[in-house]
Amino acid sequence: MKIRVQSIHFTADSKLLDFIQKKVDKLDQFFDQIISGEVYLKLENVDSEANKISEIKLNVPGDVLFAKEQCKSFEEATDLAIESLRKQITKHKDKTRAKASEHKAILSESETEDF
């Protein structure tokens, strides 16, 4: 899957970019129809230690999934955002399957009524 990573107000090193790519690629195990993704890494100017924000947006057929997490490190924030997206993907797949089976049931009813 193709993802685009944007680091805002800093330059991300290659280790962080590789880490994010590997984590996002694991989402393909749960749903192989992910079209693309965007990751935004932000440094917030606050005095607390948890000033790193990871926002991930995934484009899937018919929907856009989004997760945002703020932690002490970008790796931790990315892990939490990926876990949130994994749950969203599972729900999205369940809804899609339910609609498909409902549609098939309606089609099979209309076919039997015609005869």
UniProtKB/TrEMBL annotation:
Pfam family, one: Ribosomal_S30AE
Region Disordered, annotated ranges: 93-115
Signal peptide: none
Family matches, as Gene3D superfamilies: Ribosome hibernation promotion factor-like (3.30.160.100)
Basic and acidic residues bias locations: 97-106
Superkingdom of the source species: Bacteria
NCBIfam families noted in UniProt: yfiA
Identification of the protein by name: Ribosome-associated translation inhibitor RaiA
Source lineage: Bacteria, Pseudomonadati, Bacteroidota, Sphingobacteriia, Sphingobacteriales
